[in-house]
Write a structure and sequence with these properties.
351 residues, alpha+beta, Phosphorylase Kinase, domain 1, five-stranded antiparallel β-sheet, three-stranded antiparallel β-sheet, 10 strands, 43% helix, Kinase-like_dom_sf, Aminoglycoside_PTrfase, Aminoglycoside phosphotransferase domain-containing protein
Amino acid sequence: MHFSPSELERRLNFFLPEGRLTAAHADPGGNINQTWILRLARGQRAVLQRLSPVVFPDLRALMANFRTVTAHLAACRQRDPVIPEFPQAYRNPAGLDALDEADGSTWRLISYIGPSRTLMQVNARQATAAGRMLARFHKLLLPLGRQKLADPLPGFHDTAAYLARFDAVSRGKTPASQEEECCFAGIDRLRPLAGLLESGAHARHLVHGDPKCGNFLFAQNADAVLSLIDLDTVRLDYVLHDLGDCLRSCCNVGGEDAETPCFDAENFAALVQAYGAGGREILTQDDRALLVDATRLLIFELGLRFFTDHLDGNRYFQCRFPGHNLKRAVTQFKLHAALMQDESRLRTLAI
């Protein structure tokens, strides 16, 4: 949905009644929520977000989770200033931090952390920094406990359920293009991955839920990570889902729209070693044996979800052009093929 500057300023003024908008930059990196970096009078910056009512079934529960997680992280930083800064929600004079609208969406204003930058592809030094931050984030969440958060996305990372949804949506359909044929074939070939975590002892803790490289805030002129953002998907889940998704994203050096994606083994090694240095004890022995396969699983799962959304009329992910979800899906299946070309080497890079 498009919003004019005056419409954005009206939402801004719910949180900051005297706030005057001088510029708004839409963040193109988000697949779910709409996000704008706002520049206010006197040079202040803030982040305005419209949370998706299509994706998140209970936005009030999501905001309650956000308050719990950000308050916990802020308390950790108060005790130890070395801990990174994480986003915090603005409250208006009445103490409200969420604006609920008639269309079911919720708006919020959160703090801007900067000067910083987001990257859609990373190099080995940046992958090291991301792995270090993800391990630190996982450890920071451990004291919060499992019982304090609602599940913001029931069924998230349930690959078997995603397959069932695909089967229902695709029933009776045949490939209409070479790209669709690629996706149908990839899903048939990779179906067995859905049961990867059904056996063995695997760590389950509160995790980020979406640690793609675009959710790491990097310093403006350095490869250090300042923060990890987009905290709406924090939930109890397998740690391997988080680590596998981070590896999927950070090792795809071409990005999610690449025609010929490349899986970067150097990034894989750098991220795995950095995560291991800070969070090895979080993972079980079975987890450490499945790092490559967890990455394969998350590549498959995302390709499956993109393609299902394409067949279902693009209801879930935001698309920036016709056929975008199909292109994204093809990229993931090509990325899996690229990973498999280097599979033997990757399996030697254990934590």
